[in-house]
Amino acid sequence: MSADVLWPKAVRSTVKVGADREIVSAYPYRNACPTSVWASLIDGASQAITFAGYTNYFIWQEHPRLSDRLKRKAQEGCAVRFVVGDPESEVTRKREEVEGVPLTVGTRIRITLDALDKIRDAPGIEAKYSDEHIALSVFTFDDQMLVTPHISNLLGHDSPMLHLRRLGDDGLYDRFASHVAALWETGRPVWS
Q1: Residue 100: phi, psi to the nearest 5?
Q2: What is the pLDDT of residue 99?
Q3: Rounded-to-integer distance, Cα 28 and Cα 160, Å
Q4: Please, where are the H alpha helices in the chain?
Q5: Torsions phi, psi of 20, nearest 5?
Q6: Which residues make beta-bridge pairs with 51?
Q7: Of 134 and 17, which is predicted with more confidence?
Q8: Going by DSSP bridges, is the β-strand pair 48-52/79-84 parallel, antiparallel, or unpaired?
Q9: CA gap 139, 56 in Å, rounded
Q10: Could you give the CA distance from residue 121 to residue 117 in angstroms, rounded to a whole number?
């Protein structure tokens, strides 16, 4: 007899059997996720990378030569997409009031836009504005993603993060991927 027949409760408490099977790791803070995890996901992706964080600012600070790495990915056929907030929007202004920090949301977005402007000529690199994701950041790397649900007045690095891996239809991964697809579909191009 198998263990799940003999001890079903013990197996259910130690083996992931439901929607949580797609959770690779959970971190109490975004910055508790090691940069090596980010690097592995970025470098391992071959089809599509999407950074759908409102500012995406920290990415450029924590990953050396990110511009070169993303440009190379795009040249190899990987779609590289960024969804950022509009630095001039009312949503951004209100968030700046909530955060009340010297390095404003608009400034952090402009730092990302400046970095993207330097690689925008690489085929496969695209960027759009959206103000619909102020409270949720989703970063996809082929069939894996990092998700940060932002807690009210905290900065992104103070919010929790989940590392997900797609294992089937309509799981956690697909739910968040649908959100990113909707952001991309309704977003406004950064570059004309």
Answers
A1: 55, 45
A2: 86
A3: 4
A4: 3-6, 8-14, 35-44, 57-62, 66-75, 90-99, 105-117, 172-186
A5: -70, -5
A6: 82, 139
A7: 134
A8: parallel
A9: 10
A10: 8
Give the span between the Cα atoms of 61 and 183, in whole angstroms: 24
Yes or no: say if 156 and 139 are a contact pair by the CB < 8 Å rule: no
Cα–Cα distances in Å, from 163 out to 37, 160, 179? Answer: 9, 10, 16
**In sequence order, what are the beta bridge partners of 83?**
128
* Alpha-carbon distances, residue 178 vs 22, 62, 166 (angstroms): 16, 27, 13
For residue range 136-169, list pLDDT tens digits in order. Answer: 999 999 999 999 998 877 677 789 999 999 999 9
* Closest by Cα among 52, 105, 47, 40 to 79: 47
CA-closest candidate to residue 51, choices 166, 137, 130, 113: 137
Structure token digits, residue 138: 């989703």
